Automatic annotation (TrEMBL):
<dbReference type="InterPro" id="IPR050361">
    <property type="entry name" value="MPP/UQCRC_Complex"/>
</dbReference>
<keyword id="KW-0732">Signal</keyword>
<feature type="domain" description="Peptidase M16 C-terminal">
    <location>
        <begin position="222"/>
        <end position="404"/>
    </location>
</feature>
<dbReference type="InterPro" id="IPR007863">
    <property type="entry name" value="Peptidase_M16_C"/>
</dbReference>
<dbReference type="GO" id="GO:0046872">
    <property type="term" value="F:metal ion binding"/>
</dbReference>
<comment type="similarity">
    <text>Belongs to the peptidase M16 family.</text>
</comment>
<dbReference type="GO" id="GO:0006508">
    <property type="term" value="P:proteolysis"/>
</dbReference>
<feature type="region of interest" description="Disordered">
    <location>
        <begin position="470"/>
        <end position="491"/>
    </location>
</feature>
<dbReference type="InterPro" id="IPR011765">
    <property type="entry name" value="Pept_M16_N"/>
</dbReference>
<feature type="compositionally biased region" description="Basic residues">
    <location>
        <begin position="481"/>
        <end position="491"/>
    </location>
</feature>
<dbReference type="Pfam" id="PF00675">
    <property type="entry name" value="Peptidase_M16"/>
</dbReference>
<dbReference type="Pfam" id="PF05193">
    <property type="entry name" value="Peptidase_M16_C"/>
</dbReference>
<dbReference type="InterPro" id="IPR011249">
    <property type="entry name" value="Metalloenz_LuxS/M16"/>
</dbReference>
<feature type="domain" description="Peptidase M16 N-terminal">
    <location>
        <begin position="69"/>
        <end position="213"/>
    </location>
</feature>
<protein>
    <submittedName>
        <fullName>Insulinase family protein</fullName>
    </submittedName>
</protein>
<dbReference type="InterPro" id="IPR001431">
    <property type="entry name" value="Pept_M16_Zn_BS"/>
</dbReference>
<feature type="signal peptide">
    <location>
        <begin position="1"/>
        <end position="47"/>
    </location>
</feature>
Amino acid sequence: MAPQPLTVNQARVNRRRNTRSKSLLTWLGLSLFSLFSLGCFSTPAHATTLTKTVAGTHVATLPNGLNLIVKEDPRAPTVVHMVWYKAGSIDETNGTTGVAHVLEHMMFKGTRTIKPGEFSKRVAAMGGRENAFTSTDFTAYFQQVHKRYLPQVMALEADRMHNLVLSEKEFAQEIKVVMEERRWRTDDKPKSQLFETLMATAFTASPYHAPIVGWMSDLEAMTVADARRWYQDWYAPNNATVIVVGDVRAAEVLALAQQTYGRWPRKALPPRKPQQEPAQLGLRRVQVHGPAETPYLLMAWKVPVLRDIEQDNDVYALSVLSAILDGYEGARLTANLVRNDKIALNAGASYDSTARGPALFYLDGSPAPGKTVADLEQALRAQITQIAQQGIREEELQRVKAQLIAARVYKQDSNMGQAMEIMQLEMTGIPHTASDRLLEKIRAVTPAQVQAVARNYFIDAHLTIGELVPEPIDPANPSKTRAKSRPNFRH
């Protein structure tokens, strides 16, 4: 399967590892920390109004520009609190790649009111859990706690939105942690190296060509001033959305948001450049040599990304195509290439239609013993060609749609799942109120539409191919066995 170099959404192909069908199918005792430890709060003079959007969900925009989304779910006395900043690696510039992820680490290193590491200790003392993740499109921080502790975690998170201390000493230590994270997740994993190289080959103008963790030379040259500039530029209430899901009342959450996040002034955000990817003019190929037991093939076609819910119908058909190929246990790639024809040891498909930047549709796998990468490439191409020429069976389509509906129902059982579904849409420009409409559009996809996208988009002019050429594994070389024991990367 495709590599997973970082955390949530950091390499779009890696989403297949956790749920087989991606894109819209996926979307689809102690005082601890009293509010007054941050100072006396006062509600802003300008009233903020809650608006009900869909069942149990309310939204508001504070006077300082912060967006608030509250979804009431009283089934358990718990709550998920998240703050999402619309700033990811897509907003970085050459020479400072990785700075979004570095700043994510630094957010746990203390503020003007709490010591380094104290944030995590206090959440742990509440019996909660917390962490953060950086992607191409955003950076997010979350806590899961009993509902009684919501005021405390909101105060903690609001504190570091404005009061973060970025010291030379803490930065010097943490940048080494990030560099080791890069070594462990990418440099010592040939599949991750291949994915990184393929992205740098597939994209030229788009910032998606750079890894989220950053190029090692940029990390080595990075300074605390770079991290401080990123924080000052992008960590502002008017570039953030706070979402709270759980056993809460929206009006009470709004009052807490006004008392915590509402204290900070809005900022003038840097202008965002278009950085449009130019048209690809021909097939691109790249090889990576590395210690591995088997070869590995990764194919990526440029395809549409969702921008207009009503007009961009091809993205729904591409989502269904991904699921037809690799969305359930008996999907075509596993059934045909692994079980029946025994061409591949494994084979998969992945497509994410929601992104701030361009989209890719991936096919990948490793050839079976006695087969070559060329054999696998031909077989993967043949699966697309067969659908382009012969279409799909109605029962295949109905199976995918049934699984989509089931996955959507299961996701509603989790506060975190509900929050992630809402925010992954919001951060890529799709309103969360469109969730049901997106489901309707998927359910309306016809076999003819799936056949059409298979015929129209899977051409060599849109294709980049990456191949991992295995080299002998040297057990005496520690640098090649690092991945056997995972370092303790806290965030």
